[in-house]
Specification:
The chain has 308 residues and is α+β, with helices and mostly antiparallel strands. The chain folds into two domains: 136 residues, Roll (CBS-domain), CATH 3.10.580.10; 133 residues, Roll (CBS-domain), CATH 3.10.580.10. It contains 15 helices and nine strands. A three-stranded mixed beta sheet has the order 3-4-5. A two-stranded antiparallel ribbon has the order 1-2. A two-stranded antiparallel ribbon has the order 6-7. Helix 3 packs across helix 11. The radius of gyration is 20 Å and the shape is flat.
């Protein structure tokens, strides 16, 4: 979750280049097709700029998407992208929360009907349908984003590709190094009694999509931006929104909404094992545990960064 440079990580990268396990040229079938559309998910789920934030929450949680392109209803031209992080930012995590305070006087019930155009990321990076997979990798790394819409020459959205799609494309070729050589060792964590409101702020401040929950060095669970969205989209919270008692709800302990049966891995395990485990269990990160204590975390973005 933090940036790692030099040392064993760079040695690992050089080794991968020499063996060409992560080079796009090793995937001749993909190269012959020569288009990002061989990997991208299409048709893509989109929404209009006027879609209420609450509907965006519902769609994201139902579909399991962390990001949805925002397009004009008629032309389908790309206008922005709404992410789970944007919504967490809006619901108390960051500067977008000022919209609720300034425009709605802190009334969350009215605020969840705000159109996504007020919350979405407007300067959205995109890539053409005729682009190569390597072009998408370069653009996503440069912009430090986890997903990119695929558009035609008229800027109409046709598909989307994510760092998970790309990283897992190379899962079988990742290996030859220990998890300890690639993982983040300085992990920002939360305590079990941390409130949802505090967790939101921590995620936005550090730019993280997940927070391991730790007590006395031992892992108690993990909470993600999607867990927070599911919380806000639940019927229980909706009732509080209607009654105006949302502040009480925001003081809910994150342990109540966290995943407690966490998939973990040991630092001595091979990174190939970690990549395979993440793909099989459909998770974006694995806390690294040794002797029951959290010593690091490895994410799909770590694998993505290794691809040249």
């Amino acid at each position: 979750m933090a940036t790692r440079r030099g040392g064993k990580r760079e040695t690992f990268r050089r080794g991968l280049r020499e063996k060409s396990p992560l080079a796009l040229k090793a995937h001749s079938a993909k190269k012959r097709k020569g288009e990002i559309m061989t990997l991208a998910r299409s048709p893509v789920v989109t929404m209009a700029p006027t879609t209420p934030v609450y509907d965006a929450i519902r769609i994201m949680t139902e579909k399991g998407f962390r990001r949805i392109p925002v397009v004009d209803p008629g032309t389908k031209r790309l206008r922005g992208i709404i992410t789970a992080t944007d919504i967490v930012n809006y619901l108390g995590g960051g500067e977008k929360f000022q919209i609720i305070q300034r425009k709605y006087g802190g009334n969350f019930f009215k605020a969840i009907n705000e159109p996504v155009r007020s919350v979405m990321t407007r300067e959205v990076a995109s890539i053409l349908t005729t682009a190569k997979i390597g072009d998408a990798i370069k653009r996503m790394k440069t912009r430090r984003i986890g997903g990119i819409p695929v558009v035609d020459k008229e800027n109409r959205a046709w598909a989307i590709v994510t760092e998970r799609d790309i990283a897992f494309l190379f899962t079988r070729r990742i290996g030859g190094a220990k998890v300890a050589d690639v993982m983040s060792k300085k992990v920002v964590t939360a305590k079990p009694e941390t409130h949802i409101f505090e967790a939101e702020k921590t995620m936005i401040q550090h730019g993280f999509r997940r927070l391991p929950i730790v007590r006395n060095g031992k892992l108690s669970g993990i909470v993600t931006v999607m867990d927070i969205l599911r919380f806000f989209g639940s019927g229980r919270v909706f009732k509080h929104l209607q009654s105006g008692t949302i502040i009480q709800v925001l003081q809910t302990s994150i342990l109540e909404i966290a995943v407690k049966d966490v998939v973990t891995i040991e630092p001595e395990a091979d990174v190939g094992q970690a990549a395979k485990l993440m793909q099989e269990r459909k998770v974006g990160a694995l806390p690294v545990v040794q002797n029951e204590r959290l010593v690091g975390i490895i994410t799909e973005r770590d694998f993505f960064k290794l691809i040249d």
